[in-house]
Amino acid sequence: MELTQKKEQFVNKIKTLYPNNFGEVLKNIENPKPVTFRINTLLFPAKDTVEKTQQILDTLTSLGFEIEQGPLINSYIVKTSPSNLRLSETKAFETGQIYIQNLSSMLPVEALGPKPTDKVLDLCAAPGSKTLQIAQATQNLAQITAVENNRNRFFALQKNLESHGAKNFTLLMENAQYLTNRHPDFIESFDKVLVDAPCSNEGQVVLNDIKSLARWNPKTPKHLAKLQKKLIAEGAKLLKKDGTLVYSTCTFSKEENEDVVSWVLTKFPNLKLIEQSRVLPNNNFTGFFLAKLVKSA
Length: 297
Prior knowledge:
Elements: H1 3-17, H2 22-27, E1 36-39, H3 49-62, E2 66-69, E3 76-80, H4 91-94, E4 98-100, H5 103-112, E5 119-122, H6 129-137, E6 143-147, H7 151-163, E7 169-172, H8 179-182, E8 190-196, H9 220-238, E9 239-249, H10 258-267, E10 271-279, E11 288-295
Parallel strand pairs: 5-6, 5-8, 6-7, 8-9
Antiparallel strand pairs: 1-3, 1-4, 2-3, 9-11, 10-11
């Protein structure tokens, strides 16, 4: 299928999903979002957070970056950049003082609300953005188990966590679909479980960059939904009673989002849906979906 045909098919999908506001959605996915980032507070003592954060922001400003506070905890938006320097080329990035991450991607950990006393499972962890966010939110005190099946992605995850100062984590190079079989001691042992599932990445499509549609396949959501159901079911089994599970994707497809959540609620009657939301794209956020569930005692 040619990219122009893909674009037309994608636009029609958005119109079907959002019949009342598709114009707004389509307008907000025409162009890429600004670069956003977090300050990596794992690299300095908590008492120095305010001072160190300001120093990092002042240095970036002196290089020609215009930065404003983002809408989420510890989030910053690059409004303008110097013509000869990218944020990913700065010393702040290269030394791990900042971590580039889009705003929508920061939402699942905020919803999860990890605490320093928690045992936390990141079921689909690579490249480690959310694992690091969990470590940062709990000041490296939560016990984190991060799972990644792909060998190359596993070692990239390991390097990412270590180079950014994460501690108190265990990495497993295993297929997350079968953790309960390989680790029966994990069953109902985690206070918080994050299932940021592999998805069709429709939220990353930029209409004015037609190449962003190159990997999009309208048949992918149906295929991925099977995997997503296996992953969320595994997460439900590993979650403690009274524990919290967050399921998230960066896609628009209903079969990867609401349908997966409906399925797991039917399969596990002791799960209760606390929150479910579609994040519509706007000036700063990409399309995203997340659901927060709690297991009853």
